[in-house]
Design brief:
Pfam families: Multi_Drug_Res (PF00893)
Order of helices and strands: HHHH
Number of strands: 0
Keywords: Cell membrane, Membrane, Transmembrane, Transmembrane helix, Transport
Number of helices: 4
Subcellular location: Cell membrane
Helix content: over 70%
Family: Belongs to the drug/metabolite transporter (DMT) superfamily. Small multidrug resistance (SMR) (TC 2.A.7.1) family. Gdx/SugE subfamily.
Strand content: under 5%
Membrane topology: Multi-pass membrane protein
Largest sheet: none
Number of domains: 1
Distance between the termini: 14 Å
Radius of gyration: 14 Å
């Protein structure tokens, strides 16, 4: 159950990062409210997962999901560039996440 909450927390991190971009520096009300709501929800689920998962594992997985997810949203939704170096960086992050999961089993 902790792993499911952690994955959900990571997905919600992507949601709040994207809505923060849409908020234009918190100058737009609706995206700002969405940002704060999903930020609180993401942190709450991360805290729940940390009750049973090691700190280093939980935090690394959470930030990794957020980083790679936000990278993908940037490419597919916002039209940001998908250069070879950026793709390699994402692959390295994912590799680190897989190794972290394997090492904590």
């Amino acid at each position: 159950m902790a792993w499911m909450m952690l994955i959900l927390a990571g997905i919600f991190e992507v949601v709040w990062a994207y809505s923060m971009k849409l908020s234009d520096g918190f100058s737009k009300l609706t995206p700002s409210i969405v940002t704060l709501f999903f930020m609180i929800l993401s942190f709450a689920l991360l805290a729940y997962a940390m009750r049973t998962l090691p700190l280093g594992t939980a935090y690394t997985i959470w930030t990794g999901i957020g980083a790679v997810g936000s990278f993908l949203v940037g490419i597919f939704v916002l039209g940001e560039p998908a250069s070879a170096m950026r793709m390699l960086a994402a692959v390295l992050i994912i590799s680190g996440l897989v190794l972290m999961k394997i090492s904590s089993s």
